[in-house]
Design brief:
Layout lengths: L12 H10 L13 H6 L6 H14 L4 H8 L6 H5 L6 H15 L4 H13 L3 H14 L3 H6 L3 H9 L14 E2 L8 E6 L3 H5 L2 H12 L2 E5 L8 H5 L3 H21 L4 E4 L2 H8 L1 H4 L7 H10 E3 H8 L6 E3 L2 E5 L2 H6 L4 H9 L3 E4 L13 H4 L1 H17 L4 E4 L2 H8 L6 E3 H8 L15 E3 H10 L1
Helix pairs in contact: 1-3, 1-6, 3-4, 3-6, 12-24, 18-20
Bound molecules: iron/sulfur cluster (SF4) (2 copies).
């Protein structure tokens, strides 16, 4: 793409970086076919190519108009376009630059600013998020009224929060979890903020699964939110602060001993942590350590796949539709490992048609763009129903929360299934499917009887 920045503009490091990324785009338009918002809306300005053009115009003119804010806000940051682009346009970092520029220089209505501030202040804090969930539980009967009065974000939040009363007790353990044998590896497990509140069973399953494989799990003392939620809102400084806090926390763990990997069970966090090196590249005090942490970051399925899954203790005929979270398939390019592990654990993995298209969760997207998010969710649920699964497995809490409302089958995390198949308890919500999972000895007895 041709750009026309002046020499003076190019002195600005942000413009210089944007210029290099913009120039890679050759206008081919391959990305439009795989962009969820273009697929839904058919508007070039809601396609990657259209957004790239709007970003170029914004940086060239120095003006942050309402159209660029509107169409960038509608981007899910699903990164499907990055997977598709034959010219390797770094759309992920380009749209990050645009979001942060809009946040600093743009003018949003006061109501939007308030909502964004509330989300940034609530979601990354498990304690505040728990209180918010309690309010959501109390407000659930008034969802229709809230929607009618125009409180769309509040109504959307009620849509994606679990129907029951939230767990009110914080259960964050710190330090290493003692092993009864010499560990083969030592890892830091990222507990996450939203996930630990919405479905704590995921981290419990991950810890059991890792220990069963002889892996020592350490929960870093001062670890906090990964910063992804604020990053998606364009709050760059806050995201960097969160990243630095975690780099310090894991550096402390490293000083205490060997750390083979930093594991995430929420792929949204994983994509963010794998990008810490880039996020803090211009910070002399952190750049080196941030890059080191990014290199150690792994999705838990990558790690278990690397060390090899222990043999399952159960056999089953359950059909599992694997929902590939965008942050895992496009953000981290992790595609085969979760499917392979589920198959090795004995499940029949079925593919969801149009699997490359986002479910509409995308961080805070389902709260800020509820209509588009709902349309994407319904489209995804129709595709899931078409393959008639018994349940759905996903590697990201955002997708699980987004899809569970309206889904005809339960949605669980991949590690919960791996834990169950290798000796862990039945994951919450799957009690009705227990009869389809049998201890491996019963299969041997059956074989012996024949
Ligand atoms: S990140 Fe997703 S929604 Fe945004 S332009 Fe790319 S494909 Fe479209
Ligand atoms: S596929 Fe890549 S090069 Fe082609 S229009 Fe999209 S971003 Fe530009």
């Amino acid at each position: 793409m041709h750009t026309s920045f002046s020499a003076e503009q190019l002195q600005d490091p942000t413009i210089a970086r944007a210029d290099a990324m913009l120039r890679r785009c050759v206008h081919c338009g391959f990305c439009t076919a795989t962009c969820p918002t273009y697929v839904l809306l058919g508007d070039e300005r809601d396609s990657p190519r259209g957004r790239i053009y709007l970003i170029k115009e914004m940086f060239e003119t120095g003006k942050v108009g309402a159209p660029v804010t509107h169409h960038i806000d509608r981007c899910l940051s699903c990164l499907s376009c990055v997977t598709t682009c034959p010219s390797s346009v770094d759309y992920m970092h380009l749209v990050d630059l645009a979001r942060s520029h809009i946040e600093v220089r743009g003018r949003r209505p006061a109501s939007q600013r308030l909502v964004r501030r509330l989300l940034a202040g609530t979601l990354p804090s498990p304690a505040r998020f728990r209180v918010a969930l309690l309010f959501a539980w109390l407000a659930r009967p008034f969802r229709g009224i809230l929607s009618g009065l125009g409180f769309k974000t509040a109504a959307a939040a009620l849509d994606v929060t679990p129907p029951g009363l939230p767990h009110l007790k914080l259960r964050r353990r710190k330090g290493s979890i003692r092993m009864d044998r010499a560990p083969i590896k030592r890892v830091a497990l990222v507990l996450g903020c939203v996930q630990e509140v919405l479905r704590p069973s995921i981290n419990r399953a991950a810890i059991r699964l890792l220990r069963r494989h002889g892996v020592e799990v350490m929960l870093a003392k001062d670890e906090g939110c990964c910063g992804a939620l604020e990053h998606h809102l364009g709050r760059e400084e806050a995201a960097q602060k969160a990243a630095k806090r975690n780099v310090d926390a894991w550096s402390g763990a490293l000083r205490e001993g060997k750390l083979d990997a930093i594991l995430t069970t929420a792929s949204g966090c994983g994509t963010m942590i794998k990008d810490y090196g880039h996020l803090l590249a211009r910070d002399r005090g952190y750049a080196g350590r941030a890059t080191e942490m990014s290199q150690r970051a792994r999705d838990i399925t990558e790690f278990i796949h690397e060390i090899g899954l222990v043999p399952p203790l159960a056999w089953t005929s359950l059909r599992v539709a694997y929902h590939s979270a965008c942050s895992l398939q496009h953000g981290q390019q992790v595609e085969t490992e979760p499917r392979a592990l589920l198959s090795q654990a004995g499940f029949t993995v079925v593919e969801v048609p149009e699997g490359h298209i986002c479910c509409g969760s995308a961080g805070t997207y389902n709260l800020l763009q509820p209509e588009l998010a709902r349309a994407l969710r319904d489209r995804k649920l129709d595709h899931i129903a078409s393959v008639k699964p018994d349940l759905v497995a996903a590697g990201n809490i955002g997708c699980i929360a987004q899809l569970q409302r309206g889904a005809a089958v339960p949605i669980v995390h991949t590690v919960e299934l791996l834990d169950w198949a290798t000796g862990g308890p039945c994951p919450p919500g799957l009690e009705n499917l227990k009869s389809k999972v049998h201890p491996i000895e019963s299969l041997m007895e059956l074989a012996g009887a024949r």
